[in-house]
Amino acid sequence: AQPQHATVEMAPLGTGWSPVDEELGLAREAALSGLRQGIDLISDQQLLPMLDSQRVDPFLGVVGAHAMLLDHKPDLRRLDEVVRRLAPHLPGHPDVAALRTLTDGPSARVASPPMLAASCRLLIEADAADPGVIEDGSPAEDAAERLVGRGVWTTWLEQERWPGTLGPRGGPVPRGTAGARPLASDVVGRVQAYVQEIADLEGRAVADVLHDVPRDELCRRTGLPHRPVERAIEGLRGTGAG
């Protein structure tokens, strides 16, 4: 299975699922391919029906909204209209909350990981500017700290291997052996190593780097939410790293 190449469709509860028309399906695939590559691959003729199809498949609107953002000058007024029309169909959906950070500013605290990696990046950027947009200690924060680049969908490494994983004789699988889930990298250590590398390259003290590179800028550069970056800063200051 290659979930990074999957397509997601939504249908109202109780009505069952039926595929959308062929043109909308092709537009969705073009938009998802563009999101994977970071380039705008759909025309206005393809995009507009996606943005107006919330009653058929609201997730088409989410994908279409992100496709809009690939334009070098996205129409934020149009995006705001799309997000407002999506909200009643996807109440509390983290992907809609992510899009709202561009139109309404910081939204309600997000606890669940969004479906699209592009949405997760929007939430991380908003969390850097307004700590807590991603709810502290939530699954959304856990995912944001451990994102991996595996396509258009939000994908992250688990902090530990799956509980209950058994070896060939019924015992637990040791870490580092086949069958174990990969451990996530030390995100705090990653930020600290980044700051230390800047200090070493520029021949400066770590304290000077921290003074010149504020927390939100470190969040932006490392692609991490505020909490691991704050822990890294506290650790560097606490050890008096030079």
Brief description of this entry?
The chain is mainly alpha-helical. 50% of the residues lie in helices and 0% in strands.
What is the number of strand segments?
0
Outline the biggest β-sheet.
none
The shape, in one word, is: elongated
Quaternary organisation: single chain
The helix-and-strand class reads mainly alpha
How many domains make up the coordinates? 3
What value does the average pLDDT take?
Answer: 82
- Specify Rg, calculated over alpha carbons: 21 Å
Name the helix and strand elements from N-terminus to C-terminus, one letter apiece: HHHHHHHHHHH
Percent of residues in β-strands: under 5%
End-to-end Cα distance, whole Å, is 47 Å
Count of DSSP helices? 11
Percent helix: 40-55%
Low-confidence stretches: 164-184
Structure, explained:
With 242 residues, this protein is mainly alpha-helical. It has three domains: 1-91, no CATH class; 97-184, no CATH class; 187-239, no CATH class. Helices cover 50% and strands 0% of the residues. It contains eleven helices and no strands. The protein has helices at 22-37, 44-51, 58-69, 76-86, 94-103, 117-129, 139-145, 187-202, 206-212, 215-222, 226-239. Helix 1 (22-37) packs across helix 2 and helix 4 (76-86) runs antiparallel to helix 5 (94-103). The protein is elongated, with a radius of gyration of 21 Å.
Write the layout of secondary structure elements.
Layout: H1 22-37, H2 44-51, H3 58-69, H4 76-86, H5 94-103, H6 117-129, H7 139-145, H8 187-202, H9 206-212, H10 215-222, H11 226-239
Helix pairs in contact: 1-2, 1-3, 2-3, 3-4, 4-5, 5-6, 6-10, 8-9, 8-11, 10-11
